[in-house]
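Q: What would this complex look like in 3D?
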Amino acid sequence: MFESFPPGLLLIVGGLLALVLRGTLRSAVLLALPVLGAIQLWSLPNGLTINWQPFEGYLFEVVRVDELSRVFGYVFYLAAFLSVLFSLHVKDTMQQCAGIAYAGSGVAALFAGDLITLFVWWELTAVTSVFLIFARRTDRAYRTGVRYLVVQVLSGVLLLAGALLHYGDTGSLAFGALGLGSLGRDLIFVAFGIKAAFPLLNGWLQDAYPESTATGSVWLSSFTTKLAIYALARGYAGTEILIPIGCVMTVFPVFFAVIENDLRRVLAYSLNNQLGFMVVGIGIGTELALNGTAAHAFAHILYKSLLFMSMGAVLYRTGTVKASELGGLYKSMPWTATFCIIGAAAISAFPLFSGFTSKSMILTAAAEEHHPIVFLILLFASAGVLEHSGIKIPYFAFFAHDSGKRVQEAPRNMLVAMGIAAALCIGLGVFYQPLYALLPHRVPYSPYSMSHIVTQLQLLVFAIAAFVILQKLHLYPSERRATILGADWFYRRPLPALAVWSGRMISAAQKGFVVASLATLRGGGRVLRKLYAPPGPLGEPWPTGPAALVAAILLVVYLVSVYV
Amino acid sequence: MSKNDVDRSSIGPKIPTALKQWDGAKLLRALWISCAVLAVAGLVFDMHPHFGYEKIPLFHALFGFAAFAVIVALGAALRFVVSRPENYYEARNGTEGAGLPEADLDIEPEAGQPEDHLRV
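A: Here is my prediction, written as structure tokens for the whole assembly.
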């Protein structure tokens, strides 16, 4: 029975069920769903496909299980479980249901074997996740949510258009290796690129995630962008343009993160930077690189969730995540601070933490494929990760100058969720073999060589030394309340202005057309009056001779035109 | 220390020992020692360089230090280009971000929060 049920659907049905359940029962059901989902996935063999033929000639592969979808599937279920646990105290039915249904859509999309099935789940992730932004129930969140939805739906529409064009070209809707080269496949690439937050298509990420609820951003950080990474890895592995795109993604967010005051927005920039590493891995496209991408996505979902959880807990307790208003919170939220530091160490890729065992694979792949500049850019970006996620997040929230805020420690369910995520961040750094065994390709790789450890530690520890020296010299930029313009500026300022201007132009043109038409009609009327009203040439009765002549000419013209 | 302060510090679970003994000076000493040890390790062991530039002694250490400084400097410079007042987007929209209540938050007034800290 389990085998005929598409993975992820269980969570969606559970989300609907949670609409009517309340209290402990709802909590128990929500917690059980990801566990059941993971057990179901475990029971499904690789190579399993489920086809559905709604009508003659159209066969959809609604489920396709293989190594790549499986590794993403497991971590999606894990992230769903942690997110449920973290938000267990939330009474808001809308958030609870939207969260679990969003995770379910994400999982289902991973197992879509054709582009139309992928499109359906792709759009459902957009529609369900927007409620996690609306749930904040402020006017600002509502506007952000609408912007987010427009961008996400646009991505889906491009995917559908691309899929149909691709079908027209090849007669196939199968979602396998696509590559660039036709309009349809290029459109699908852009659709994936929007959700993967490619440079200049990334505005929605920094715009929307920080506006979600304290718990909502934990859900959001796990699924949408990693679904896009999975889709790129499936469809565009080895597409070389992804290497420069990924490099830009790793580098540009770090500069914005330095000056961003909202710590959840800093995490959104950091997320973008981490996606860059994965995109580079997909672009390199070797088995080691693709393994690195999958491993990094796995590790990333856990430490990024942990960091969003820690900032969510801070927001929940203090009402703000602005660096300029925080500081010294380790005194009242010591466990949250400890877990945040573990997440920060993991994302910075310190040895013995999960980021190290996953990211080093992508760097090694870049080195083995002889990409000296790419390797250098990834090293530079690694120093950037340390700056914004390794140091800035924990330092300004929990240490730095004491803001005087004295609050309660995070609720127990939040602490347990953060504790599990933190344990996994260390666990995958030390006992990485089970994760490596899940990866799609069988490539021998060992992260803990002396040169790997020493070079990585040199990079990180000397970068920390730079931070200390800059702080001592008062050269580190202070945290200021400000809005930092990002790629979303283009559709929040010039685009509406252009729309208003175009509207004005169209209405002016419309007005001009009406005036001109009326003037023409009036002029025409005057001419006709002159012709037909007495004493105009046609307004008087004609003498019989000329009238007969005109009639004869008309008759001749008619006969010639008909019979000749 | 006022009576109120005493009450506030007793809120929540006990501080883990590692954090309780948070000592900036000791941490800094540990940092400088780590730098020295890593520098020596980098010079003593074979670092298996992939590229020519990695053969520069202490390349990764120097690169980490320089990259961090460059990131901070360029980030600070970027502020002149992309930094706007906090209400930049709200100002023209009228209602956006008008400080409506946060439905999701559970800020606990009994924890001694001054009212102005409740703003988001």
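A: To summarize the key features: Residues 1-12, 95-101, 108-120 of chain B have pLDDT under 50 and may be disordered. Chain B touches chain A through 80 residues (CB under 8 Å).
Q: Very helpful, thank you.
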